[in-house]
Amino acid sequence: MKKHILCFLLSLTLTFNYTANAQAPKGELKDGPLIHTIESSENLVKEAQLSLPLSLIPGGVYVGSFKDAPQMKEGRVPVVLFMHGSSGLGLKAIAEWQHWLASLGVASIAPNSFALKNRMTYTSPIDKDMYEKLHAFRSTEIEITLKALQKMPWVDQTKIVLAGTSEGSVPVARYLGREFLGRIMFAWSCEDNYFVSSHKTAIPDDQPTLNIISSIDPFFSPSNNWIGNPKAVGHCQAVLKNNKKASVVLIPGGPHTLLTFPQAKGPVQGFLSDLFKL
After folding, report:
1. H or E element at residue 51
2. What's the rounded Cα separation, in Å, for the pair 226 and 220?
3. How many domains does the chain have?
4. Could you list the residue range(s) of the whole structural domain that residue 32 is in?
5. pTM surpassing 0.85?
């Protein structure tokens, strides 16, 4: 089986035509602040998208704003802290994915990065220095949300997983703390490319980790001819090679957003079931 997988990955790599000097599209930058204020730090959580399982609330699964959450029953549940991508919480797939998590008995919270009014937005590619300022900003959102979760009586503090997609996966990969039971990274390759000065992945070799990405991801696979790295393979295998608790799932021909794909749900469910003892 391993031989077949390696051959498959090799064949995918050979089919991509990477052009080192390809002309990148013209990106757009709408400049704005990238430091959370006291107000935006509070609203980051208040305006977060929350999902709650049946074990916590009567009448059905809840998916909606944290500030509008219904009265909860006593009890504690495992939680996924999810970092959205550059399009924010308006992406329909995020709410659908959170609803699915709740159906498994897992709560989730997706902090709203756009709680900071007029924050910087962009269309790739832009300058790497600006990307790095953005990644540092998003990293602070993990710390802010985690501190909030640590004060919530319904959270099982021993069962919190950190997850993200695309832009939101970069701070997940770089996070230095050991508070999380595991990590899930969608649509990020943990490689040097146009999106980072260097990937700076900081996942411990003994931490359960799941990386899911399309074989033709339009941004972080070799099918992007302006990726900025002729050696890019488009997934996190290289940085996870010494981690016996890590898995890389490469979905052939998938889109950038994979949250609700059946081929992605199975690995996620298995990963969380193992960690949370569901």
Report:
1. strand 49-52
2. 10
3. 1
4. 2-276
5. yes
